[in-house]
Amino acid sequence: GESVGLHLPTLSVQEGDNSIINCAYSNSASDYFIWYKQESGKGPQFIIDIRSNMDKRQGQRVTVLLNKTVKHLSLQIAATQPGDSAVYFCAESMNTGFQKLVFGTGTRLLVSP
Amino acid sequence: GAGVSQSPSNKVTEKGKDVELRCDPISGHTALYWYRQSLGQGLEFLIYFQGNSAPDKSGLPSDRFSAERTGGSVSTLTIQRTQQEDSAVYLCASSFRPDGETQYFGPGTRLLVL
Fold first, then answer.
1. Do B91 and A43 touch (CB under 8 A)?
2. Which end of chain B is more exposed for a tag (fewer CB within 10 A), N or C?
3. What's the rounded Cα separation, in Å, for the pair B114 and A112?
C-alpha cells in the first residue's frame, strides 16, 4: 500500500519466502509502469516494467502484475534474499512525448536471514 | 559499463548560497531527467531534456531553480539563494530515447542547506 510522509510501509519476510509488494496508481490514462529498487545511499535501480496492454510480465525471480480495473500494480519476488532488502518504488507514466514518471512513496522490504 | 554519474555526491551549503549540481548521462542517451527526493519520499519530477532543449520544466519548484544541458550530454542543475526546504537528494536519469525507454538513474547528490 501507499503511505504519506516519513513512515514507509514495511514488509518483513524471511529469507526464501516469496514477497509481494503492492502499489495503487492514480491515473487511469497511464500506459507504462515500472518498479525500481533503491538501496540506502544509492539511486533507484530498474527492476521490471510493464505496458498497459499486458497484465503480467516475468523477469528473473520477479513478476509484475497489472490490474487496470482497480488501478493496482504488484511486484512479486520469488525466494527473497537478504540482498533484496531495499525500498521499492512503483512509477507510472503516460506517454506525452516522453516518459514523465510519477512515483509512489515506496515500500521498505526487510529480509531476515 | 559506465552509468549515470553525478557530482558532488554530497553538498552542504549555507542558506542563501547558490549551488550547482552536475549530471553526466550514459553516453548516447538523448533524454535526461532531473528528479528530487525528499527524506522518506518518492521521487518528484523536475525537468526533462531532449538534446539541449527542455520541453518540460514544469516540475521546477520556483524560479530559483534552473537547469541547462550542453553538447547533448552534461547537465547542470542550479539552485540560487538556497533555502532549507531545498535540502533533498537530487537524482538525474537518462534514457536512450524519451518515449518508452527505461530511465537509468545516477547515485544522486545529497544537498543539505543549513
1. yes
2. N
3. 37
